[in-house]
Structures are given as C-alpha cells and as structure tokens.
C-alpha cells in the first residue's frame, strides 16, 4: 500500500472513529500533497516524493511549539504535539547518530575527503545525497562537524 493510499485509509478510519485530531492532521497532509501536485504539475505516486512533504509539515509544527510555549498556549501545545505524533507515523525511522557516524566515515574514506573543516561543504553535500530521507539534516551536520574536527 502506498503512502497516499495509507493516508486515505487512515483518514476514513479516523472519521469512523470520530478521532478529529488524526482526521484533521491527515487531511492537512493530503491537502499539502495535492497542493504540491498542482503547483509542480506532477502526480506524486512514489513514497520518496511524499515523505519530504510530510517532513515539512512536521517541521512547521515542531518549530511552532517553541512559540506556543513562550506565549503560554498550553491548548495549542497539546494540539500540535498530537499532530506531531500522527505525522511521525508516516515517516520512516530516522537513522541513529551511531549509524550516521558510520556512514559519514565510510563516505569520507570513499571520497578521499581530508579531515579538516574546509571539507565541510563537500562532505555534507555527499552525505546528504546518500542519506536523503533516512537521516535528519541537523544530526548529519553535527556528526560531520565532529568527524572533521577529530572528536
């Protein structure tokens, strides 16, 4: 079952179960996918094309949490945390920091990249291309900096 089909099925299930939080979150994701298809004039069928859209939705909600906390909006904090839980169901499991470290070391050796901070851009670009969709960019950046600084 493709991710698009799973979203539709989960939307129907949430409607039947009267789970408004899940229903609304899934509906927002489906709308974002549809909007992307219209904007780019493409038909997204591959899960690899849909995952970045879901990640973007997740990042938007995660970024907003800090603002809600500062404003003391516990109602919105709770709501967004539920939405984040729902969104995470549709994303593949992220690589652990140890796995990222192994990948960075292997990629650096294969590409013959020197262990100095001048190589940061090259190593990041190569690593992100290989780990696209599997690892969080900020985690990769942290590991690459540690690797290049010799820690």
Give a short synopsis of this structure.
The chain is mostly helical.
Task: Name the helicity range.
Answer: over 70%
CATH superfamily of the largest domain: Uncharacterised protein YqeY/AIM41, N-terminal domain
CATH architectural name of the largest domain: Orthogonal Bundle
Instruction: Estimate the strand proportion.
Output: under 5%
Q: Please give the count of helices.
A: 7
Description:
GO terms for molecular function: carbon-nitrogen ligase activity, with glutamine as amido-N-donor. Pfam families: YqeY. This is GatB/YqeY domain-containing protein. The chain contains 7 helices and no strands. The protein is mainly α. It folds into 2 domains: 3-89, Hypothetical Protein Yqey, Chain: A, domain1; 97-149, Arc Repressor Mutant, subunit A (Orthogonal Bundle), CATH 1.10.10. Helix 3 runs antiparallel to helix 4 (74-88). It is globular, with a radius of gyration of 19 Å. The model has no long low-confidence stretch (mean pLDDT 87).
